[in-house]
Amino acid sequence: MRGFHFHEFRPNADQRTPFERLLELFLEIATHTAGDVDEAIDWLREIDRQHSLTTPDYTVDDFVEELRAKGYIREQRPGGGGGQRLGAKGEQGIRSRALDQIFGNLKKGTSGGHKSRHRGAGDEPTEDRRPYQFGDRLDQIDFSASLRNAQINHGPGTFRLTENDLVVEDREWRTATSTVLMIDLSHSMILYGEDRITPARKVALALSELVLTRYPKDHLDIVAFGNDAWEVNIADLPYLQVGPFHTNTAAGLELAMDILRRRKTPNRQIFMITDGKPTCLNDPSEPTGYYKNPSWILDPLITGRCYNLARQCRKLGIPITTFMIATDPQLQEFVETFTEANQGRAFFTGLQGLSDTIFTDFQQGRSRRAR
Questions:
Q1: Are 223 and 248 in contact (CB under 8 A)?
Q2: Residues 288-329: pLDDT tens digits?
Q3: What is the pLDDT of residues 52-104, one digit of tens each?
Q4: Phi/psi of residue 222, each to 5°?
Q5: Residue 55 gets which letter from DSSP?
Q6: Helix (H) or strand (E) holding 260
Q7: Separation CA 47–CA 11 (nearest Å)
């Protein structure tokens, strides 16, 4: 006899497939391993041994094969050998996960931008209506309101629509913004057993995904700085690692300014994530090509160069927002003077508050945690 089969309803049961559950964990581990797929898989196997994440029907090996089949990972070299690395889908998955973790319930926009105070023939419709003026675009006309005016003004007997009957909707302008995110990759980012680079890397991943999905008109450039400064492609963000570097803040600022000079957007800004005092300058007269000072003191020559660059940015209309993720009193002294020279902003935040603070500042241009 054919009938219905009932089972217990569990509203909080995990409805994800075994692949989806393991994928979330794998992407998180890959973020901590700076995109090292082989190390991430080793970690996943160890966690599986300790916590029995998989079953005989679906093992870690099955998961790895599915990762490869779906484009999340690929062979380091064609034909095998040399290990594995993230595929394009894996890199995007890490960015998307970072965005979900850091920026919460953000929804994707269709024509992203940043609101301004100006109204007129902009991009974003508002509830405000006004009479038609010469120069208004046809796509601004509210035809329902205009036809209603025509009936009221000329009577329902014959249809007549004049310029005085037309009503247009005000729109908010949306402005494009060019942002350079500077990330300190000096050795101090992993000193004393504290991992500061992973939160900074996550911020870069999430901010890049935010711009790509919600603000497609914006420009986001990533600048890493240590002994020198260099640009980082968005595809390379998962692989950012700290090196045996000093902190050449001046080189990072110079590169950021060069990038923003090429951008023709009306709004330009620099975000700088750092935990160390500037300790290095490019100097061709030195045998090593660098002028360096001990990391435990502030060198007036190095800090003076940074202050001068901050003033140059101010003259170019480029505000600098510094996110300091350490509590060193000397660094606070440097950041305060640096911020005053630029007339920018400074946020003295720990690692836990870093992402939330950057998001608030990027989205709204202000933060409740501002000094």
A1: no
A2: 999 998 767 789 999 999 999 999 999 999 999 888 776 677
A3: 999 999 999 999 999 999 999 998 776 666 689 999 999 999 998 888 776 65
A4: -110, 130
A5: B
A6: helix 249-262
A7: 27
